[in-house]
């Protein structure tokens, strides 16, 4: 994932999907990498990635949405 930048980590899959939806609404491609254990979802995280060249835009959108 060299061309993708990590912008967010969470243990909450629903939260990762909300962030994905918000970014996609703003025409930012998103990839979610689920690193949670399939048997014990308390272990591991869900990572949200965007293309490297859109990282600054995604960070701004994310900080705006988290402040509301």
Give a short synopsis of this structure.
The chain has helices at 13-25, 55-67; strands spanning 4-10, 31-34, 46-51. The protein has 68 residues and is an alpha+beta fold.
Describe this structure in words.
The protein is an alpha+beta fold and 68 residues long. It has one domain (4-67): 2-Layer Sandwich (Alpha-Beta Plaits). Helix content is 38%, strand content 25%. It is built from two helices and three strands, in the order βαββα. The protein has helices at 13-25, 55-67, and strands at residues 4-10, 31-34, 46-51. It has a three-stranded antiparallel sheet with strand order 1-3-2, covered by helices on one side. The chain is globular. The termini are far apart. The model has no long low-confidence stretch (mean pLDDT 89).
């Amino acid at each position: 994932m060299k061309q993708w930048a990590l912008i967010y980590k969470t243990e909450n899959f629903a939260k990762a999907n909300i962030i994905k939806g918000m970014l996609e609404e703003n025409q930012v491609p998103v990839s979610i990498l689920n690193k949670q254990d399939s048997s014990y979802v308390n272990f591991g995280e869900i990572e949200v990635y965007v293309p490297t060249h859109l990282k600054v835009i995604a960070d701004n959108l994310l900080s705006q949405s988290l402040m509301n």
